[in-house]
Amino acid sequence: MPKLLIVDDETIFRKGIGLMIADMQSEWSVIDEAKDGVEALEKIEALQPDLIITDIKMPRMDGIQLQYIVKERYPHISCVVMSGYDDFQYARESLKLGAKDYLMKPFERAELYTLLEKLQVEIALEKEQLTTNKKDKQVQNQMLQHVLAGLLTGSIPHGETELLDNVGVQFLLPCISCLVAKLDRDSVTDERYYQLNPSLFSVYIQQFIQESIEKPLLGYVFILNENEVVALINHDDTSASFADIEKLTNQIRKGIRGQSNFTISFGLGSPVKDLESISKSYKEAGLALLYRLVIGGDRLLSSDTIAEMTMEKLEWHTADWNLLNQYVQEGDLANVHLQADQFVTKLCQQWRDPELIHEQICKMLLHFYELAVNLTVVKMWLQGTDMKQVLMEIYSISSSKELSERCQKLLGDLSVCMVNRKKKFVTSPVELVVRYVEEHYAESITLNMMAELVYLNPSYLSSLFKSKQGQSFIDFLTEKRIEKAKAMLLHSDEKIQVISDSTGFTNIRHFNRVFKTLTNRTPTEYREGRQTS
């Protein structure tokens, strides 16, 4: 029984199509609906439909973007697009991406039925063929990926051209240039980046480049890793080649920016004339991309770009990150993230040499590594990796946004380790109890529980607590809860019942009585005092 997924941002269309298909009394089964491309991808992964009927204009991810990703990740899934008369140009783009057909809104029931009957036969035949070829194609794609990646790393042995022939790779023209594309991380909000799954951006970029490169130039496009798409472009040894590549990258950047509202940057290596030198072109492309740090993204970067830049060496002192050092040791996570971001941003704005930027960041990280060594928290901090790997990773990052995020994560993790270490070495049982109350005041807490926590007799803990704090444990716990309740009354509009529950009181009557005893006002009077003051 063929399965169908309906994707449209308007509920009425989704439900209407579903009812039409139910009335059709065919083998088609509508397995689910989705309101946009992002939700559709989640359901495609889980449900594996045979056919997707999708609208074109939708929030978050439209039908065109959805088709790019489906074509790359799920080539066995067929698509039909729906569009209004004003969107016909998008429908044509969908057909180029392999859509089986399009339905012009509003469409007739008979039109939908005819299309589905035709597709049912086609999908059955394709499934039969797919089963036959699937294993062979998977092996071939894996070999192709391996060989192309081997050309970049220089691991393909000299003279083994038959290996390229076996996977269908041919460079017929005299020159090969390596073009590396990366997402400009600062062009995508954190919410969209992590909600969508970061790897999908590379899939989309790869598909977009492949579609563009087949027309004016010859080449092979593949995803090298989650953040990097590589194109090996085969071209004549002419002065016009760079201009052609530049024109191509400008078209791709403009197209992706217009259709998907994010930007990418390209790094271009110099042309080479033999397979063994492709790794050199790849390294040059990566080096050129590092200059995103100082001149920004959404552009083509090459060795010519670097040569034209005037480098200046500025003085930098450790005092510039002393405040960051203070926050890390205090465990002030919010300010650690803020200061780390400001440090990286300032470096990238003021310095013109990526190597020096990386060098200063690595110096800063080595300072904190030394601090972690002295406090014996390195293992807890780096979680199975070592500082050498961390520094190598820093030198490979060419986006200021990604560099900032990595530093924030590293120093934030170290700050947490510092706090945990301090907790571990607290010697006073009263300090442990006070800390526990401050963190768990909303829960049920008794003196007996605290005595078990610090391995003391309840009577002895009660006496010790009063001598150290100047008040009984119960009075301290009650005051702490009332402090939190007062803050919620002043700075939120939560109901009194909710505040009572949130601050650890067993019932609202008890809360009201205790609150009035300590403040001479009821919770409501206290809140009204805020409004009149």
UniProtKB/TrEMBL annotation:
Q: Matching SMART domains, A to Z?
A: HTH_ARAC, REC
Per UniProt, residues of the Response regulatory domain are 3-120
Q: Which residues carry this modification: 4-aspartylphosphate?
A: 55
Reading the lineage from the top rank, the first entry is Bacteria
In this protein, which residues make up the domain named HTH araC/xylS-type? 431-529
Give the PROSITE patterns listed for this entry. HTH_ARAC_FAMILY_1, HTH_ARAC_FAMILY_2, RESPONSE_REGULATORY
Sorted alphabetically, which Pfam families does this protein's record hold?
Answer: GGDEF_2, HTH_18, Response_reg
Keyword Phosphoprotein annotated: yes
Q: Which residues form a coiled coil?
A: 109-136
User: InterPro entries annotated for this entry?
Assistant: CdaR_GGDEF, CheY-like_superfamily, Homeodomain-like_sf, HTH_AraC, HTH_AraC-typ_CS, Sig_transdc_resp-reg_receiver
Keywords of this entry: Coiled coil, DNA-binding, Phosphoprotein, Transcription, Transcription regulation
PANTHER family in the cross-refs:
ARAC-FAMILY TRANSCRIPTIONAL REGULATOR, HTH-TYPE TRANSCRIPTIONAL REGULATOR EXSA
* Protein known as: Response regulator
Organism of this sequence: Paenibacillus violae
